[in-house]
């Protein structure tokens, strides 16, 4: 039993996988002692130990349990046995089937060999028969082939003999393509036999083909032929090994000459236009530019338009596809020269309309040409050209404006004649104001035209134009400021590196001009810049081609600041120039006499006349340029002069009696106390752009200078009295100029005080003498003015 | 006990108060002060009369001191030795000396603190002398100045005396309206003799000058409408700056060839003598005449100017070449330091004629207005700012 079980187990193990062999073995080995481990499955494990299982089972279960287990196991074993039997029967059945199949196969193979042998015999017989047929037909076939070749040859010979007539026919019909084809077809034969059998024939053919070539050549040169025909002719000629290249160069040279003459005509007309420009009115420029730029020359001899050139080029392109590069060069040259003419013209003053017209004419030609010769990249080329032209145009416009402004300023310099001087400064101011504002607005209008134009070329430049215009204005005003400085003889400061100083010497600068500049600067700051800013914002905003980080090119705030400070500077300069002039007068007055040995005063010194004359001149200039101040004191008319002087004489008398008693003692302290509270506030106030402010500033400065000059001298009594007399006299005329009586009084008092300090023996003139001398002077000057007005 | 008690009672009522109690001054002048902003300077009111001349006592290395001389036609004139007290808070009169005539120019000897020169007039007479301050141990309130040398070769009105600013040198220059004199002086033996003399002719009118601190043979003279330069060895003109109506001229103490002028119309102008055709720089100067102009002895870009508009202005003006500004574009170069008015000292009641930096303390300057007030200001805050 053990033996049998073991064999069965091994068989099963070989049939199933090794895993199952153990399990199977365990399952089969019912006698094997069961081992109880963690799970009941362990009975299937390969390491199953029946003894352990048994002992575990015994230990664990009671009798009843053991019996139950026994029953279970017996049932399992029985089941497994049945399964085993089933498997054995199944396998046996399969084996029997296989044996049957093998037996059947053996029987079927036996008849096959005979059939094969039969087949072989048949095939052999078919092959022998086929060989037989082949040999019998061979001779005939060879003959046929020979005959066929001969026939072909004969046909060719016939063709060649016919060739001349055929070619002639072709020429007649102008079917040159056929002629060339025929000729080329027969060429190998001519080459082989041309010297012998077909000599005549060859000659005739060649003559015919020469005629063909000639005709083709004529066709190519003839402009009236359709382009396709001409192109075909070139192809045919090329096939005939005709030197086409030389033909091409010849044709291109022709075109080149043609373009050259065109350009020459441009140049001539351009030059003549420029000549006439100088003599003719600006309104003619437009007309002239028309004639210059459209290719119709005034003489009309050539009457060639770009359209025709483009046609020619189109033809050439088709005729000689490899001539493109040369053509591009030619055309680019043509347009470079044409743009060059405009660029030269732009340096003159032109209107946008002119520029636009010129660019438009060329642009039309460019588009026309571009259709034909896109490879020439003419639009890009034109864009570049237009860019530089417009840039040049904008900058030229600004420099012209700059020139106009300075002309307006300098043209109407004060004339030597007094009458014209009255209004000339005003004219200069009004003229230059107008030029600045109107010129700027006109320029903007001009540039607007550039922007508003629908020309495709300009649309691409829009942003750039906006930037250029803004930059232009920025640069224009900066340059204007520098120009102003130069006009005042201060130019070298703005340009210190220039080795040549051509700035006008300060002495030669017209003071009136400085005043005009001051007021013009104010005008630019307050009126012109805001106005221009508005215009720019309205139609020249955007741009931005220069990048946002830079901000807009036109910075009105900066320009305003420049001109605000420029205005103040010019106003101060004017005052300085005037005070300097008077200062020289005063210096002469005070350094010339020996004050310590001065003689008793007999009359008011004549320097007061000069001083008043200077102030009068200032008044004339200032009244032309500057507005009146808001607070205007009542101005004494000339007719009331006498009463005025008597009235002020009375007040002065009061003052004199008072001062005569007190002055000597308290003058020093008094003046110092006065200074303490008055001086700085009164004298050195900020100058305003009004007539009164400027005149009073000048007078205050002069009186201050007077005081300083007095302080540098030492006086004897008479010298002091002379000063006293002069100052006393000045009091009223000065007040005619200035509404600030208190300041004048104070400053005059300062002068007398200074003289008093610097006097060895300061005893003032008696009031009656003072009055008498002053009234003598007044009547004398009145007489003089009367006599001068009579004369 | 340094101040004489016998002040004449004119303007000096206020002054004596000022001297003893500065705070009282502030009360007295409160209206002015509130209107012009607080004053920062230290005021010395000891000068009793008008005055034009103040000089830094350069040779005094122990103290910051100044010499000021009065200009009074009728009263007895004085020279005050003023010292800035060590904490820098007070001006003390260290010595008061009577001077026989009114003083138009006063210069301190650069190598001896006790020696100085004056130019003076008296009526029609004029003169220039070198003086020595006596030893200060005596009890006298107003000891006599020791008269060392008279520079009496002049036939025109004397304008100024120049010491060579850079140290010990036995020469002295005196300028009158028509002549330039070079003197050899010997202070110990009280000797002076003219080495050479140059007459500028009647057409020109000399009014002042400056001695080049970099070249003891070069001197600048102020003519009517130009600045003339002489070589002292040959006494010939070397060059000139035309179109300069200068009132004052000062050489740059640090850089040769550079100088600054003060002019009535053009304000302050900086020049490079190698290119005398046009100024290197212009500063607006003063509302009225710019009377005096001085470089700071240490920080040469600080320029001080005094004007007849009763102000002293402190300017920052970078001399060219210091930062290669010549090669840069002159306009709109943001990196280039701006020349500017740093401060305007307005605490004056009259024209300011006298101006002196302290060599010992370069951040301090003294100014003298015509009414005799000495104001010492510190510019320290502006130096630090650089």
UniProtKB/TrEMBL annotation, chain A:
Entry keywords, A to Z: Coiled coil, Golgi apparatus, Lipid transport, Protein transport, Transport
Ranges of compositional bias, category Low complexity: 639-649
Keyword Nucleotide-binding: no
Protein origin, superkingdom: Eukaryota
Region span, Disordered: 18-43, 633-659
Broad class of the protein's primary localization: Golgi
One record GO biological process: Golgi organization
Coiled-coil intervals: 63-129
One GO term describing the cellular component: GARP complex
Subcellular location, record wording: Golgi apparatus, trans-Golgi network
Keyword tRNA processing: no
Family: Belongs to the VPS51 family.
Job of this protein: Acts as component of the GARP complex that is involved in retrograde transport from early and late endosomes to the trans-Golgi network (TGN).
Quaternary assembly: Component of the Golgi-associated retrograde protein (GARP) complex.
Protein name per UniProt: Vacuolar protein sorting-associated protein 51 homolog
Organism: Musa troglodytarum (fe'i banana)
TrEMBL record, chain B:
Keywords associated with the record: Repeat, WD repeat
Coiled-coil positions: none
GO biological process terms on file: protein ubiquitination
Domain spans labelled EIPR1-like beta-propeller: 39-315
InterPro entries xref list: Beta-prop_EIPR1-like, EIPR1, WD40/YVTN_repeat-like_dom_sf, WD40_repeat_dom_sf, WD40_rpt
Annotated spans, Disordered: 317-340
Stretches forming WD repeats: 283-315
SUPFAM superfamilies on file: WD40 repeat-like (SSF50978)
Family, as annotated: Belongs to the WD repeat EIPR1 family.
Annotated protein name in UniProt: WD domain, G-beta repeat
Source organism (scientific name): Musa troglodytarum (fe'i banana)
């Amino acid at each position: 039993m053990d033996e049998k079980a073991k064999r069965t187990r091994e068989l099963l193990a070989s049939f199933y996988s090794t895993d199952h062999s153990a399990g199977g073995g365990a399952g089969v080995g019912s006698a094997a002692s069961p081992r109880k481990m963690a799970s009941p499955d362990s009975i299937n494990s390969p390491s199953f130990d029946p003894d352990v299982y048994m002992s575990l089972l015994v230990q664990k279960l009671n009798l009843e349990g053991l019996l139950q287990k026994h029953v279970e196991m017996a049932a399992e074993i029985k089941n497994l046995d049945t399964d085993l039997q089933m498997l054995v029967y199944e396998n046996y059945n399969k084996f029997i089937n296989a044996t049957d199949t093998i037996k059947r196969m053996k029987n079927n193979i036996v008849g096959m060999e005979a059939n094969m042998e039969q087949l072989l015999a048949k095939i052999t017989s078919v092959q022998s028969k086929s060989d037989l047929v082949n040999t019998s037909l061979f001779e005939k076939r060879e003959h046929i082939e020979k005959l066929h070749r001969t026939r072909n040859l004969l046909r060719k010979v016939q063709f060649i003999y016919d060739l001349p007539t055929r070619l002639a026919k072709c020429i007649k019909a102008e079917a040159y393509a056929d002629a060339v084809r025929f000729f080329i077809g027969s060429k190998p034969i001519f080459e082989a036999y041309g010297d012998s059998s077909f000599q005549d024939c060859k000659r005739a053919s060649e003559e015919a083909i020469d005629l063909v070539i000639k005709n083709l050549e004529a066709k190519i040169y003839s402009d009236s032929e359709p382009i396709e025909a001409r192109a075909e002719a070139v192809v045919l000629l090329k096939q005939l090994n005709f030197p086409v290249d030389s033909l091409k160069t010849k044709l291109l040279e022709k075109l080149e000459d043609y373009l050259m003459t065109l350009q020459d005509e441009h140049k001539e007309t351009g030059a003549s236009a420029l000549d006439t420009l100088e003599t003719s009115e600006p309104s003619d420029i437009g007309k002239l530019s028309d004639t210059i730029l459209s290719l119709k020359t005034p003489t009309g001899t050539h009457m060639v338009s770009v359209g025709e050139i483009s046609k020619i080029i189109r033809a050439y392109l088709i005729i000689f596809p490899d001539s493109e590069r040369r053509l591009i060069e030619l055309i680019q040259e043509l347009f470079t020269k044409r743009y060059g003419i405009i660029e030269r013209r732009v340096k003159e003053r032109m209107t946008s309309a002119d520029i636009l017209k010129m660019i438009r004419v060329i642009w039309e030609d460019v588009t026309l040409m571009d259709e034909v010769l896109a490879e020439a990249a003419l639009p890009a080329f034109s864009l570049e050209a237009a860019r530089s032209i417009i840039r040049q145009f904008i900058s030229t416009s600004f420099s012209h404006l700059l020139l106009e402004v300075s002309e307006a300023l300098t043209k109407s310099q004060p004339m030597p004649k007094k009458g014209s001087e009255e209004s000339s400064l005003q004219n200069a101011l009004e003229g230059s104001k107008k030029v600045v504002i109107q010129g700027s607005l006109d320029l903007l209008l001009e540039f607007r035209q550039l922007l508003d134009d629908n020309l495709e070329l300009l649309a691409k430049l829009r942003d750039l134009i906006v930037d250029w215009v803004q930059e232009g204005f920025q640069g224009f005003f900066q340059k204007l400021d520098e120009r102003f400085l130069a006009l005042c003889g201060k130019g070298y400061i703005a340009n210190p590196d220039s080795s040549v100083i051509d700035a006008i010497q300060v002495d030669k600068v017209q003071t009136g001009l400085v005043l005009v500049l001051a007021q013009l600067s104010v005008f630019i700051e307050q009126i012109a810049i805001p106005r221009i800013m508005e215009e720019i914002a309205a139609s020249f905003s955007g741009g931005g081609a220069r990048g946002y980080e830079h901000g807009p090119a036109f910075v009105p705030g900066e320009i305003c600041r420049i001109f605000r400070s420029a205005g103040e500077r010019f106003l101060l300069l004017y005052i300085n120039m005037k005070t300097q002039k008077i200062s020289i007068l005063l210096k002469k007055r005070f350094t010339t006499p020996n004050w310590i040995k001065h003689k008793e005063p007999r009359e008011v010194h004549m320097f007061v006349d000069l001083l008043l004359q200077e102030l009068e001149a200032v008044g004339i200039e200032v009244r032309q340029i500057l507005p009146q101040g808001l607070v205007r004191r009542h101005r004494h008319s000339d007719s009331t002069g006498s009463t005025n002087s008597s009235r002020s004489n009375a007040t002065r008398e009061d003052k004199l009696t008072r001062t005569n008693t007190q002055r000597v003692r308290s003058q020093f302290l008094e003046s110092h106390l006065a200074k303490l509270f008055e001086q700085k506030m009164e004298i050195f106030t900020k100058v305003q752009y009004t007539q009164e402010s400027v005149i009073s500033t000048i007078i205050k400065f002069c009186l201050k200078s007077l005081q300083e000059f007095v302080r540098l001298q030492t006086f004897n009594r008479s010298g002091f009295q002379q000063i006293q007399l002069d100052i006393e006299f000045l009091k009223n005329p000065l007040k005619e100029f200035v509404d600030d009586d208190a300041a004048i009084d104070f400053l005059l008092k300062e002068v007398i005080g200074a003289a008093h300090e610097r006097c060895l023996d300061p005893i003032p003139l008696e009031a009656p003498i003072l009055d008498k001398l002053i009234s003598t002077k007044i009547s004398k000057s009145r007489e003089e003015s009367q006599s001068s007005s009579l004369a | 006990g340094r101040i004489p008690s016998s002040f004449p009672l004119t303007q000096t009522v206020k002054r004596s108060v000022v001297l003893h109690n500065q705070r009282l001054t502030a009360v007295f002048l409160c209206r002015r002060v509130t209107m012009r902003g607080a004053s920062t300077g230290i005021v010395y009111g000891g000068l009793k009369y008008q005055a034009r001349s103040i000089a830094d006592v350069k040779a005094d290395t122990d103290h910051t001191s100044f010499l000021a001389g009065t200009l009074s036609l009728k009263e007895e004139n004085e020279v005050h030795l003023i010292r800035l007290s060590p904490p820098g808070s007070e001006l003390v009169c260290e010595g008061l000396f009577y001077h026989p005539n009114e003083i138009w120019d006063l210069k301190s000897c650069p190598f001896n603190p006790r020696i100085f020169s004056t130019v003076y007039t008296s009526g029609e007479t004029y003169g220039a002398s070198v003086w020595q301050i006596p030893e200060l141990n005596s009890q006298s309130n107003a000891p006599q100045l020791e008269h060392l040398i008279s520079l009496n070769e002049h036939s025109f009105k004397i304008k100024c005396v120049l010491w060579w600013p850079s140290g010990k040198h036995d020469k002295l220059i005196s300028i009158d309206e028509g002549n330039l004199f070079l003197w050899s002086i010997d202070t110990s033996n009280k000797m002076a003799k003219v080495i050479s003399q140059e007459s500028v002719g009647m057409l020109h009118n000399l009014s002042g000058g400056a001695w080049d601190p970099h070249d003891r043979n070069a001197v600048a003279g102020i003519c009517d409408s130009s600045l003339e330069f002489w070589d002292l060895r040959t006494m010939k003109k070397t060059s000139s700056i035309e179109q300069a109506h200068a009132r004052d001229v000062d050489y740059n103490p640090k850089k040769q060839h550079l100088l600054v002028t003060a002019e009535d119309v053009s304000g302050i102008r900086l020049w490079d003598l190698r290119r005398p055709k046009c100024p290197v720089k212009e500063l607006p100067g003063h509302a009225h005449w710019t009377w005096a102009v001085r470089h700071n002895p240490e920080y040469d870009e600080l320029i001080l100017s005094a004007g007849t508009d009763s102000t002293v202005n402190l300017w920052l003006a970078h001399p060219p070449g210091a930062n290669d500004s010549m090669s840069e574009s002159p306009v709109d170069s943001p990196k280039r330091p701006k020349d500017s008015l740093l401060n305007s000292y307005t605490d004056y009641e009259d024209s300011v004629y006298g101006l002196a930096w302290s060599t010992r303390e370069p951040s301090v300057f003294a100014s003298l207005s015509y009414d005799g007030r000495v104001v010492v200001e510190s510019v320290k805050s502006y130096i630090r700012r650089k």
